[in-house]
Specification:
Layout lengths: L1 H7 L7 E4 L6 H7 L3 E4 L6 H11 L4 E3 L5 E3 L4 H8 L6 E12 L2 E14 L3 E3 L5 E3 L4 E10 L8 H14 L4 H13 L3 H14 L7 H14 L3 H10 L8 H18 L5 H16 L12 H13 L3 H12 L4 H8 L1
Parallel strand pairs: 1-2, 5-9
Antiparallel strand pairs: 3-6, 4-9, 5-6, 7-8
Length: 335
């Protein structure tokens, strides 16, 4: 909380803190930073809590932060520039979240709607979204988020998502979020169940379409349902030109498939998948997992080349990954 308020205090005219039942020093910290402190009885509904907080604010523009988020750098000028506009629009803030998978730390990047004019509220019990729908514009602001780093919030999130889905069973967004939650819990069969439902409901133009496709491919791979994975890649091959995250997942799938089935006819496709990741990175195509178009792709490509006996190429790509200070690659280069 202190880190969050310290990073934002100089950029705003007013700080509203709503306590939903904390047992730490939230109240003391909020008052230390001159915040107006309110209490809201938790009712298993993030939108209700957020909307209560919005009602307490007096400004024409509202900036919403969670206690486990903080600005990387002072961004008052960017906020002022965005809020000087007379048009009603919603500002997207890039949020970089740390997470752990298979013992390794990664960073994910998502743009979230967090800066908007008075009158906008939230809807949705969990993974709430602003309403009414207004044009969304990137602000250039960036937050770091570590609330899920080394912390399991599934006991809280799963029941809320199931309640929300009961209210809106046809929601692609909620099915996607449930699938992703189960994926993080390594319950991959359950992840497939919900991600497949989302896949059937989503259109290609939906903002989360490629994220859902990539998560579904990863879930199929973890479940060793290689026939379904191969079918999905064939159906969504166009994304290979647009998403480094999907290319990376394709490379992982084909590598696992080749090892398990001893079908080495896909060797060239494994190589091409990781090379495509790097090509998309050079073209500036955005990624969701930091490194999927740079050091992670380079490292996996190096491991691949090493496994097929191509030491020269392996050294080249270990070096490329190490140039990003990626720990495992640095260790290989030094070794």
């Amino acid at each position: 909380m202190a880190r969050c308020l310290c990073s934002a205090a100089a950029m705003v005219d007013e700080i509203i803190v709503v306590d939903t039942g904390s047992t730490d020093q939230t109240r003391e910290i909020a008052l230390e930073y001159g915040a107006k402190l309110f209490h809201f009885e938790w009712c298993d509904d993030f939108s209700a809590a957020r909307n209560y907080a919005l009602k307490q604010a007096s400004g024409d523009w509202l900036l919403v932060l969670d206690a486990d988020e903080y600005f990387v750098e002072e961004s008052a000028d960017a906020i002022r520039a965005f809020t000087r506009s007379t048009s009603r629009r919603i500002g997207l803030i890039e949020i970089v979240s740390k997470f752990v998978e298979d013992g390794h730390t990664f960073e994910g990047i998502h743009s979230n709607p967090r800066l908007f004019p008075r009158g906008v509220t939230y809807e949705g019990r969990i993974h709430e979204q602003p309403t009414p729908i207004l044009p969304m514009v990137e602000t250039g602001l960036r937050l770091l988020h570590d609330g899920y780093y080394m912390t399991d919030k599934s006991d809280r999130n799963i029941p809320l998502l199931l309640k929300a889905l009961k209210d809106k069973p046809g929601s692609a967004y909620l099915n996607f979020q449930l699938g992703r939650q189960y994926q993080g819990m390594k319950q991959h069969e359950l992840a497939v169940q919900y991600l497949e439902k989302a896949y059937a409901l989503l259109r290609q133009t939906d903002p989360i379409a490629i994220e859902n496709i990539t998560e579904l491919l990863q879930a199929y791979t973890k479940c060793k349902r290689y026939d379904k994975a191969m079918e999905l890649v064939g159906d969504e091959v166009a994304w290979l030109e647009r998403s480094p995250d999907f290319c990376f997942a394709v490379g992982q799938f084909l590598l696992d498939y080749a090892i398990d089935s001893q079908d080495y006819s896909v060797i060239e496709n494994i190589e091409n998948s990781y090379l495509k990741c790097l090509e998309l990175g050079r073209r500036g195509v955005s990624e969701t997992v930091v490194g999927s178009s740079t050091f992670l792709a380079a490292y996996n490509l190096a491991v691949f080349y090493e496994s097929v006996g191509n030491k020269t190429e392996a050294q080249q790509y270990y070096g490329l990954a190490a140039s990003y200070r990626y720990g495992p690659a640095v260790a290989r280069v030094k070794g």
